[in-house]
């Protein structure tokens, strides 16, 4: 993988997939503040009204094969857009950081297959708080055999998938600890993302709660991972592998 070298070191060339969305806009704004990364292309599903915004060339997904060289794609789109960006990264020998949720089993299998050829990181949640919550949930589940485990998630009304990717990932942690989680979803107003995990037995209850109030936490985590992933050998990475 090639990256341009500047006075300040290596600049990672990034493609943002899902650029017109809530997460895409946060990523573009925060990437512009970094001197170790440069966004070289922005892609969304629809034909963009302007071809270049703030020096970044925009492409419609169907024109994506004409994008310039990049080291890593950051994908926050929808499940319907995932196959296209995974295929482009494999074709260009570029890394992929994906936060897209609602992927099918077949898409997960394609991701694992691509990881034999390129470095890939797919995470339902790029916040540090949820990384810690995941560990707490697994520990609580393991320490509380036989307790009920319920995961309640709340998001904005535009969110398409339910339960959220984070709720399912927390559920997998609970299952790893031996629990059998149940899920409930709420869609209301502009809630950024809330996850509530409750362990209940007769006469007592433990409640673990994470509230995201700003999408910048996810965008910062994804940008951090994107600056590190291109240097890695092909494989399937977790967020925690790239935190140090
Ligand atoms: N892992 C994490 O930490 C987080 C994950 N997410 C996930 O990120 C994703 C995006 O969320 P959000 O920004 O709120 O969503 P938005 O609906 O605001 O944006 C979706 C973006 O994806 C593009 N898109 C949709 N379909 C396609 C397609 N078929 N091909 C190419 N591009 C497509 C849209 O383009 P257009 O506007 O032209 O339709 C738009 O740019 C969701 O899956 C969400 O669950 C969100 C926050 C944090
Ligand atoms: O769609 C969102 O907004 C979010 N999606 C992710 C999920 O499905 O878990 C992460 C975050 O909660 C925001």
TrEMBL record:
It is an enzyme of class 1 (oxidoreductase). Homotetramer. InterPro entries: DapB_C, DapB_N, DapB_N_CS, DHDPR_bac, NAD(P)-bd_dom_sf. Its main location: cytoplasm. NAD(+) binds at residues 18-23, 99-101, 123-126. This is 4-hydroxy-tetrahydrodipicolinate reductase. The gene is dapB. Residues 12-126 form the Dihydrodipicolinate reductase N-terminal domain. NCBIfam families: dapB. It comes from Lysobacter koreensis.
